[in-house]
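Continuing the series of single-chain predictions for the mutant panel. This is the parent chain; the variants come on the following pages.
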Amino acid sequence: MRNADRLDATDARLLLALSESPRASVLALSERLGLSRNTVQARLAGLEARGVLASFERRIDPAALGFPLTAYVMVQVVQRLLDEVAAALGGVPEVLEVQGVSGPSDLLVKVVARDGDDLYRIAGLLLAIEGVERTSTSMVMTTLVEHRVAPLLQQRAAPAPPPGG
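Parent structure:
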């Protein structure tokens, strides 16, 4: 998270309330947190400006769109073509996320597919991208912990222990 050092307990409480009720109005958040409406509005604007608060997008289950299979593809690339590979990956609709990683692979690509045959097709598309040297695909069998930030926000929102205690 950018500028995490400037995220105080009040910001964390605000973000936690927002993560629990994403559609909450500024007024509802101010009442819930016991802060003035102007304070909540100013803090939200500051969090957005600092890049702490990302754009709002409802999470849509890809299975509802006909893509029940999720997989991660580790991709090794020709380093000088990394930008071109990333751009090409962004052009594949079934690619949900691309992360640059350390280790034996360069990219971690999250993809969705209709079934095993579709995953095979998508893996072939990725491997055909100029600059991709090698791929390794792992299917997601089940999700044990969903994407979350609430525990981090709860930790930051907790009052600091007294000095020496």
